[in-house]
């Protein structure tokens, strides 16, 4: 029951369940659980019966709750039930037809849709998915939680912990893919007389991304455990959760979880009775995308303006307040306890040679089942779309997959058999990024996609450097020209020149990667850019580019006017009709309707 | 420590930034957002060099030499990227280096400067400048077709400034003293000149309201042009006109009085940040993205020293 889930009505359903149980006198344990990832299926209830079966009801509404409960549980007494039925006349009799979205078929079939979503996933960061209560420290402990911390603190030296992480091959999930063990080593090796910091980067500003928020909200204890192990390994005594202020639920959960850890001796003085002392505080970030960049993040904690600065010096040498600082992403840290608990060898069994472990993605776009997924590295992009995502929405053909959000690129369908792997994605001009994965179908316009992301980076650049502040804006202007049909062929070359120059010359990661959406679409879909110069947007997404016009072939039959849902066609029978461009939504219904082929898309 | 620069090995201590080392051995590396001795953060990128060892373009003003570096300072790749950074800055720079009237004057009178002195109430200076440029008793303006008036930007707002009449009145005012007055105009074709372009309708209204002194002159010429590095480096880079259409969110010709003789004209600011990092609680940044601006809050004006104009690499901060 995360923030987004509550927005879909989970909270209301929770209240309804609680009340219905009271009302019906049913004695069950009601447990709010962590994110199940299946965003288009929520609110969702699992009913676990004493015979060990689990029945799952997706997409329910509060008024359906009672019926579900009655289906499974006997109310306290027949009498009470009778009274209830009389008191509450609108209680429907539960038949198989009552719910259009719940199928009263055996559990296996009924949840098949969800199961195919779950098959092929592998849970490390989201272990305990679907049954773990985020803030139940006893439950977390009983499932192996804090074993890793105990093992690290009592059985392993700092060097051994770092060594284990090095051997696991895990690379940072915040976007860059830097080997985590090496980063820990650097911080551990830097001046040991100085105070050191560890920071968990929970800024997550990519549009559409919510992986880290879910991890913070659903598995706060796991992330805390990871950060504490990191602190032990590098010799830090203060930790900071940098969480964007727009994630209030994550902030609350992490704060509560931190309190629990302190009470249970997992944080504070002499953790677990060892001589390692460490504590963590929460810093709420103001929410600029650029503050996710590590040097800007540090500046922001120091109370300065969120400007990135040139590296070197890296935070590992001189970070927060000039002290050696380890910054890791939420997801990176959430994999640490698994590595320590099961050993690096076990971890390396998952994933590919160059990219170990799993990756959490926010699967979105034109896909049947979107949501939060965790897959082993090495899964192909096509498997993700077809098997987990249930294919492209509306049965359309896959055109491309966009990974890495505003810093990433589009991978065309013919390359989607590529594996999820840092290096493989880089080679194709995309990046792993922090985990946005957007499915694009044949009805997606690639110029429009590129424009969307550049619009974002143009606003979100910190504005300090020339190439980023002005250069991206100039790129955006060319894209605007393209999408309104006002560009010339030379503009595409200028766009490319700008993109390559910005990529080379920008100071920080934001600027260096901002041209990627353009470069990758130019690389694979240059013909679409050229079409736009010629005034064609084949998908019709660039609506400002064309207008519909009725030609002289019109016989004045009025059929088009009657089909137009926007009432944008002026007509006098037997005279040529006219389309009012300002009202027309370019749905194209009239084109299909006209028997004389008299309606054409023309350049504005 | 040894590093390579353009193929030659040089000895460096590692204590100075690359730009200092390079300048020490005679390379002329431009810099806008860096001024030796002042606090700064790399932003303009005109000081870029390439480290061939890792293929990266780096701002030399903020990078310290490292073992194994192999620096290129003047390959076409480096020079064209530096040029592009200047062009991008100029595309967000709606300002005239020189006033159009001065540029077209066949008698080479610094018309704009004469009017500026006149409007500021320094008639002696106005007179002297005019006298230094022409034969004041035989003023060429008398028989001139006055291209200055045709070029006058005020003409695109409502009506041009009556330049000729003004010059003649000045020439005849024999009671004025001759004082030291020099023109800083440089209308040579070899020197880069930023051009403002057209005013929007809203800007015209605004200009009418703000520039309402008797002459109605808009004082197009940039008052910081004698010290402007942006113009100097653009000239060195061979830029004639920016390749990118000029568009900016800054208000054109807005001159904010900061303190004493110090003025701030945001439309000319390249957001290098030098004035921000080198005043205490003075200039500050506002907004982000393309909208990012440098501003001077009213309550901070007193915290600024007039000398700050010296480190501003453009005419955005100037003293009168
Ligand atoms: C513009 C920009 C935004 C970033 N945003 C995030 C973010 O939201 N979360 C994150 O963990 N890393 C982000 N990063 C990457 C961080 O700078 C840093 O590399 C990362 O937190 C390191 O953690 P890791 O090694 O575990 O990946 C961003 C980088 C850039 C350039
Ligand atoms: S490259 Fe862009 S985001 Fe990065 S520091 Fe420069 S202006 Fe800011
Ligand atoms: S600031 Fe420099 S480039 Fe701009 S108008 Fe003034 S002199 Fe010209
Ligand atoms: S006013 Fe001058 S010093 Fe200040 S940021 Fe602008 S250009 Fe730089
Ligand atoms: S002078 Fe080096 S970045 Fe501006």
CATH class of the largest domain in chain A: Alpha Beta
User: What Rg of chain A is obtained from the alpha carbons, in whole angstroms?
Assistant: 28 Å
CATH topology of the largest domain in chain A: Rossmann fold
Strand percent estimate of chain A: 5-15%
The greatest interface here is:
A-B, 30 and 35 residues
Distance between the termini of chain B: 47 Å
Tell me which ligands are bound: flavin mononucleotide, iron/sulfur cluster, FE2/S2 (inorganic) cluster
Reading side by side through the largest sheet of chain A, how are the strands ordered?
8-7-11-9-10
The shape of chain B is elongated
- The CATH homologous superfamily name of the largest domain in chain A equals NADH-ubiquinone oxidoreductase 51kDa subunit
Largest sheet of chain A at a glance?
Answer: 5 strands, mixed
Give the beta-strand count of chain B: 10
Seen as an oligomer or otherwise, the chain set is: heterodimer
How large is the count of helical segments of chain A? 26
Rg of chain B is 22 Å
Would you identify the regions of chain A where 5 or more consecutive residues have pLDDT less than 50?
82-110
SSE layout and pairings?
The complex is a heterodimer of chains A (604) and B (320).
Chain A: H1 3-7, H2 10-24, E1 45-48, E2 54-57, H3 65-72, H4 78-87, H5 107-110, H6 112-118, H7 137-142, H8 147-155, H9 158-168, H10 180-189, E3 197-202, H11 211-218, H12 220-234, E4 238-244, H13 248-263, E5 279-285, H14 294-301, E6 325-329, H15 330-334, H16 336-342, H17 344-348, E7 358-365, E8 371-376, H18 381-388, E9 398-403, E10 409-412, H19 422-427, E11 436-441, H20 446-460, H21 466-483, H22 489-505, H23 509-513, H24 516-533, E12 546-550, H25 559-563, E13 569-570, E14 578-579, H26 589-593, E15 599-603
Helix pairs in contact in A: 2-3, 8-12, 8-16, 9-10, 9-12, 11-13, 20-21, 20-24, 21-22, 22-24
Chain B: E1 2-5, E2 8-11, H1 18-24, E3 48-51, E4 56-59, E5 70-72, H2 76-90, H3 100-104, H4 111-119, H5 123-133, H6 147-151, H7 154-157, H8 163-172, H9 201-210, H10 229-236, E6 256-259, E7 262-264, H11 274-277, E8 284-286, E9 293-295, H12 308-311, E10 317-319
Parallel strand pairs in B: 1-5
Antiparallel strand pairs in B: 1-2, 3-4, 3-5, 6-7, 7-10, 8-9
Residues 290, 307-308, 461-465, 468-469, 506-508, 510-511 of chain A line the site of one iron/sulfur cluster (SF4).
């Amino acid at each position: 029951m995360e923030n987004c889930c509550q927005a879909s009505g989970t909270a209301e359903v929770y209240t309804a369940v609680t009340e219905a149980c009271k009302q019906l006198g049913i004695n069950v344990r009601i447990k709010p659980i962590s994110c199940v990832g299946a965003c288009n299926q929520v609110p969702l209830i699992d009913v676990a019966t004493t015979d060990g079966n689990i029945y799952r009801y997706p997409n329910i509404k509060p008024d359906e709750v009672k019926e579900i409960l009655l289906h499974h549980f006997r109310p306290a007494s027949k009498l009470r039930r009778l009274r209830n039925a009389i008191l509450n006349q609108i209680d429907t009799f539960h038949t198989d037809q009552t719910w259009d979205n719940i199928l009263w078929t055996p559990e296996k079939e009924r949840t098949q849709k969800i199961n195919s979503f779950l098959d092929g996933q592998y849970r490390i960061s989201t272990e305990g998915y679907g049954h773990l209560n985020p803030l139940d420290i006893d439950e977390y402990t009983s499932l192996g939680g804090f074993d890793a911390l105990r093992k690290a603190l009592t059985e392993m030296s700092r060097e051994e912990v770092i060594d284990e992480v090095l051997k696991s091959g895990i690379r940072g999930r915040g976007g860059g893919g830097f080997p985590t063990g090496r980063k820990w080593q650097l911080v551990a090796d830097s001046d040991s007389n100085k105070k050191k910091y560890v920071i968990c980067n929970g800024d997550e500003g990519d549009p559409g991304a919510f992986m880290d928020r879910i991890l913070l909200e659903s598995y706060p204890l796991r992330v805390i455990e990871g950060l504490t192990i990191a602190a032990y390994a590098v010799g830090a005594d203060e930790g900071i959760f940098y969480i964007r202020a727009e994630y209030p639920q994550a902030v609350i959960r992490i704060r509560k979880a931190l309190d629990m850890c302190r009470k249970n001796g997992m944080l504070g003085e002499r953790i677990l009775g060892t001589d390692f002392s460490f504590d963590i505080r929460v810093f709420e970030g103001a929410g600029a995308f650029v503050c996710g960049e590590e040097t800007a993040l540090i500046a922001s904690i120091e109370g300065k303006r969120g400007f990135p600065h040139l590296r070197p010096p890296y935070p590992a040498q001189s970070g927060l307040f000039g002290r050696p600082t380890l910054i890791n992403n939420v997801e990176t840290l959430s994999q640490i306890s698994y590595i320590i608990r099961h050993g690096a060898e076990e971890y390396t069994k998952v994933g590919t040679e160059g990219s170990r472990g799993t990756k959490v993605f926010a699967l979105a776009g034109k896909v049947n089942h979107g949501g939060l997924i965790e897959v082993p590295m090495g899964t192909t992009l096509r498997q993700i779309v077809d098997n987990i995502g249930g294919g492209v929405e509306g049965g359309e053909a896959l055109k491309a997959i966009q990974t890495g959000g505003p810093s990433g690129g589009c991978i065309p369908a013919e390359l989607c058999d590529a594996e999820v792997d840092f290096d493989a994605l880089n080679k194709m001009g995309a990046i792993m990024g922090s985990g946005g994965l957007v499915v694009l179908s044949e009805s997606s316009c690639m110029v429009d996609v590129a424009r969307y992301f550049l619009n974002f980076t143009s606003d979100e650049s910190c504005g300090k450097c020339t190439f980023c502040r002005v250069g991206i804006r100039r790129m955006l202007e060319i894209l605007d020209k393209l999408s309104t049909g006002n560009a010339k062929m030379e503009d595409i070359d200028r766009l490319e020149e700008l993109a390559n120059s910005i990529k080379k010359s920008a100071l920080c990661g934001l600027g260096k990667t901002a041209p990627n959406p353009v470069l990758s679409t130019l690389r694979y879909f240059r013909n679409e850019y050229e079409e736009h110069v010629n005034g064609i947007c084949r998908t019709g997404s660039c609506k400002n580019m064309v207008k519909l016009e009725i030609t002289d072939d019109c016989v004045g039959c009025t059929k088009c006017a009657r089909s137009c849902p926007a009432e944008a066609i002026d007509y006098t029978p037997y005279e040529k009709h006219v389309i009012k461009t300002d009202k027309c939504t370019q749905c194209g219904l009239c084109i299909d309707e006209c028997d004389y082929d008299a309606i054409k898309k023309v350049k504005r | 420590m040894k590093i390579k620069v353009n193929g030659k090995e040089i000895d460096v201590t590692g204590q100075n930034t690359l730009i200092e080392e390079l300048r020490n051995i005679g390379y002329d590396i431009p810099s806008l957002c860096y001024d030796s001795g002042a606090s700064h953060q790399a932003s303009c990128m005109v000081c870029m060099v390439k480290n061939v060892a890792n293929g990266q373009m780096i701002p030399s003003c903020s990078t310290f030499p490292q073992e194994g570096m192999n620096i290129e300072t003047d390959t076409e790749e480096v020079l064209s990227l530096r040029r592009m950074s200047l062009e991008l800055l100029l595309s967000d720079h709606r300002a005239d280096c020189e006033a159009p009237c001065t540029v077209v004057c066949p008698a080479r009178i610094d018309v704009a400067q004469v009017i500026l002195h006149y409007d500021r109430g320094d008639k002696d200076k106005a007179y002297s400048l005019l006298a230094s440029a022409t034969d004041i008793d035989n003023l060429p303006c008398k028989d001139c077709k006055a291209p200055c008036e045709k070029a006058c930007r005020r003409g695109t707002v409502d009506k041009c400034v009556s330049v000729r009449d003004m010059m003649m009145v000045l020439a005849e005012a024999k009671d004025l003293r001759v004082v030291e007055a020099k023109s800083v105009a440089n209308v040579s074709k070899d020197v880069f000149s930023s051009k403002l372009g057209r005013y929007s309708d809203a800007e015209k209204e605004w200009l009418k309201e703000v520039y309402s002194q008797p002459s109605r002159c808009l004082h197009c010429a940039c008052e910081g042009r004698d010290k402007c590095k942006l113009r100097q480096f653009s000239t060195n880079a061979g830029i004639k006109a920016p390749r990118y259409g000029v568009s900016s969110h800054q208000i054109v010709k807005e001159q904010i009085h900061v303190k004493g003789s110090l003025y701030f004209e945001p439309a000319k600011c390249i957001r290098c940040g030098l004035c921000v990092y080198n005043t205490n609680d003075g200039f500050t940044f506002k907004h982000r993205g393309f909208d990012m601006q440098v501003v001077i809050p009213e309550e901070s004006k007193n915290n600024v020293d007039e000398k700050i104009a010296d480190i501003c690499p453009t005419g955005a901060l100037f003293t009168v």
